[in-house]
């Protein structure tokens, strides 16, 4: 017993010495900028990785299991380490294979390494990649502005072949997966800095200004002094889909974010739909949130019912329907539509959640898309009659709303449109003090 005690004391002393020499800074939150690419409608964030550090643009994918990066082209780093099979890091990443590589060793090509299916959700292509670790560095925040840079020395990510980058906005070298699994960004950041496993996403509706993703603790402050916090958000339970909806799934639970929409109201009137489509059965049905689909995607029968009700309520307001613009099915002349702070004044759409009093209200700023100065369209699209998920809340519907994904408490918080509070997601102060 005595020797081991001695070692423990020695270790403590050692840790104490290091702490003294290098006073550690533990951030309570981290912030990533998010920019929308106006031509692809993809949301792209920037992180720093490797030694020496390189800036990488990554597609923001809420429902992806991994951070993956193209390692086949220009990945040079002295701190790159492949994750070997049968290690705890490999187990955490839920491996699909143990791979060998019959080529010259390089990042992405090593023997006896942990292999996983990596997915590109834009084109639904999946390929095997090597799990690895390298330094990742991001900015911390106190909730009101961007602070000093902090690093995670052994961040677990995956190495993709260059081919998997196809269909990502040019300049993007991979994907920032925000999934609910152990090595998604939210879980790794939370465990690296011991903050709560939650993050807030605030996508900017502006093409020129960044929105943000904030990992860790609230509050979130937006200029000019608007505070969004756990206390001001409305919460709904985060639901688990027991079966992944992804192309490369083999029956494991989904890492995506599902919520329980119970009914849809337009102008406060219930839209008649088959409510069985709203629950999750054998992995099908239900409602999830996506940053990959630019507009909300509805199952065919729900789409028809929503359009019918919206067109009827719009007509009652003397809003004139005009010819459709693909991919939208309901477009209107702007002539009889007033502009308000929360967008064009059109019938409101309510997603009714766990009770009649918990409602996600979608105002004109999030429901409508301007196709030109004279025409606005209802920003929803249909997907075939038999999609896996009945309602996919798309990115346009999330813009300038703060949505918090609280994995620790299994709940999703939403702010409603920040435009109503005289701020936007672009108003988070990303100018750094350090
Ligand atoms: C993997 O092992 C094989 C067989 O020993 C060898 O030929 C190959 O070069 C190795 N690959 C790497 C990347 O080290
Ligand atoms: C991906 O890119 C290819 C080639 O540019 C194109 O033909 C294809 O339609 C794209 N797929 C998607 C889903 O955007
Ligand atoms: C957006 O993506 C397109 C297509 O990949 C690319 O040509 C363009 O440069 C990107 N825009 C920005 C601002 O990165
Ligand atoms: C719609 O137009 C009709 C006829 O011009 C008018 O009587 C009615 O008050 C208008 N309704 C609304 C809601 O503006
Ligand atoms: C943004 O944050 C920086 C750094 O903390 C600060 O110097 C600057 O005054 C802030 N900007 C505004 C508009 O408050």
From TrEMBL:
GO CC field: extracellular region
Signal is among the record's keywords: yes
Main location, first listed in the record: secreted
Single biological process term from Gene Ontology: proteolysis
Any Pfam family: TAXi_C
Keyword Repressor tagged: no
Subcellular location: Secreted, Extracellular space
Matches recorded under InterPro entries: Aspartic_peptidase_A1, PEPTIDASE_A1, Peptidase_aspartic_dom_sf, TAXi_C, TAXi_N, Xylanase_inhibitor_I-like
Domain of life: Eukaryota
The entry's keywords: Secreted, Signal
Record GO terms (molecular function): aspartic-type endopeptidase activity
Family from the record: Belongs to the peptidase A1 family.
PANTHER family (alphabetical): ASPARTYL PROTEASE-RELATED, EUKARYOTIC ASPARTYL PROTEASE FAMILY PROTEIN
Protein's recorded name: Uncharacterized protein
């Amino acid at each position: 017993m005595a020797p081991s005690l001695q070692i423990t004391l020695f270790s403590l002393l050692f840790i104490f010495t290091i702490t003294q020499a290098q006073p550690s800074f533990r951030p309570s939150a981290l912030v990533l900028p998010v920019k929308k690419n106006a031509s692809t409608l993809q949301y792209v964030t920037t992180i720093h990785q490797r030694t020496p550090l390189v800036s990488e643009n990554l597609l923001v994918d809420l429902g992806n299991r991994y951070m993956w990066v193209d390692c086949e082209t220009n990945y040079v780093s002295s701190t790159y380490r492949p994750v070997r099979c049968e290690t705890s890091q490999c187990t955490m990443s839920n491996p699909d294979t143990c791979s060998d590589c019959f080529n010259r060793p390089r990042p992405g090509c090593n023997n006896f390494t942990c292999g996983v299916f990596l997915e590109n959700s834009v084109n639904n292509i999946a390929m095997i990649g090597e799990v690895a670790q390298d330094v990742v560095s991001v900015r911390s925040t106190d909730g009101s502005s961007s602070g000093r840079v902090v690093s995670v020395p052994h961040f677990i990510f995956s190495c993709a072949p260059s081919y998997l980058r196809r269909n990502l906005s040019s300049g993007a070298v991979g994907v920032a997966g925000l999934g609910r699994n152990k090595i998604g960004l939210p879980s790794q950041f939370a465990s690296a800095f011991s903050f709560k496993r939650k993050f807030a996403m605030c996508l900017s509706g502006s093409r020129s200004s960044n929105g943000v993703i904030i990992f860790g603790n609230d509050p979130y402050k937006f200029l000019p002094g608007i505070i969004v916090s756990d206390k001001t958000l409305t919460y709904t339970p985060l639901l688990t889909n027991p079966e992944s909806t992804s192309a490369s799934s083999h029956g494991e639970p989904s890492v995506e974010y599902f919520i329980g929409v119970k009914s849809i109201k337009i102008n406060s009137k219930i839209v008649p739909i088959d409510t069985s489509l709203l629950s999750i059965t054998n992995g099908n049905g239900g409602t999830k949130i996506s940053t990959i689909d630019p507009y909300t995607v509805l199952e065919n029968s729900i789409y028809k019912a929503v359009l019918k009700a919206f067109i009827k309520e719009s007509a009652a307001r003397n809003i004139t329907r005009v010819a459709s613009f693909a991919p939208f099915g309901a477009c209107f002349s702007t002539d009889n539509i007033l502009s308000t702070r929360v967008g064009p004044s059109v019938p409101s759409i309510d997603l009714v959640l766990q009770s009649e009093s918990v409602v996600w209200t979608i105002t004109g700023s999030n429901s409508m898309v301007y196709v030109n100065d004279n025409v606005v369209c209802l920003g929803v699209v249909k997907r075939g009659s038999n999609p896996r998920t009945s309602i996919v809340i798309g990115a346009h519907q999330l813009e300038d709303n703060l949505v918090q994904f609280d994995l620790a408490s299994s709940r999703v918080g939403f702010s409603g449109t920040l435009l109503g509070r005289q701020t936007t997601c672009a108003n988070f102060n990303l100018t750094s003090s350090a």
